[in-house]
Amino acid sequence: MTHTTRTLAVVSAGLSDPSSTRLLADRLTEATVGELETAGHTVTVETIELREHAHAVVDAMLTGFPTGDLATVLNRLYAADGLIAVTPLFTTTYSGLFKSFVDILDRDALHDLPVLLAATGGTPRHSLALDYSMRPLFTYLHADVLSTAVFAATDDWAGQDDRVNPLPERIARAGRDLAAAVAARQQAPTAADPFESTPSFAELLAREGL
User: Fold this and answer.
1) In Å, what is the CA distance from 31 to each residue of 55, 75, 105, 170, 199?
2) CA dist., res. 115 & res. 104, Å (int)
3) Is-contact 82 178, C-beta < 8 A?
4) 30 sits in which H/E element
């Protein structure tokens, strides 16, 4: 296997600081990066805290195009080899900020991109939102959505459910699955310079004996 530099984009839609959403995003990132580095890859992480770009996201929805720091962030996301997307759940679905961010994404930019979905919420009964709301959202964008997804309820952080399917084990499994998908992804070859074989002005003069 050829070891390369891989770029991981991490989108966190937490509204508070600190937030359990960002904490889950960081844990999933650590697990994924650890697996890739163990396999010999160098990893670059681009973390996107949506709370910091909330106004720019709304502006992009109104104008039809992103500008400034948000445009830079989106370009880095589009160039990534894998994506971790984490949102809090409100009234059984993703946050409005998360949906607004997805709405301004280029419709073809996530094609075949490995995506790990994760969410936080008050009780385990909200976990179904991963499959009936988040997954269709990224499937519509033709992303390669992993079958593995992680939901963290309030009790998961307190360790009350450690005896059955504990959160650390679910995070580790998700990290392994995303790392495998990212490592297997074919990176686009560097485009050849169309003017590489064009002789310079000096060379043309030399050919004419000038």
Assistant:
1) 31, 24, 26, 10, 50
2) 17
3) yes
4) helix 20-38
Rg (CA), the chain: 21
| Complete DSSP assignment for 153-208 | EHHHHHTTTTTSS-HHHHHHHHHHHHHHHHHHSPPPPPPPPTTTTSPPHHHHHHHT
Lookup: tokens for 204: 């043309």
Q: What is the domain-level CATH number for residue 181?
A: 3.40.50.360
Exposed/middle/buried for residue 155 (C-beta within 10 Å: 0-12, 13-18, 19+): middle
Residue with tokens 């990176």: 187
| Strand pairing report for 5-12 and 82-90 | parallel
Residue with tokens 């650890």: 34
pLDDT recorded at residue 137: 94
| Total tally of structural domains belonging to the chain | 1
Q: Which residues contact 78 (CB under 8 A, 6 or more apart)?
A: 106, 109, 110
**Structural domain of residue 54, as residue ranges?**
5-207
Binned average pLDDT, 10 residues per bin, the chain of 210 residues: 84 91 97 96 96 96 93 96 96 91 95 97 83 94 96 80 75 98 73 49 58
In degrees to the nearest 10, what's the CA dihedral of 124, 129, 131, 135? Answer: -140
Question: Six-digit token pair at 174?
Answer: 């998700």
Contacts of 202 (CB under 8 A, 6+ apart): none
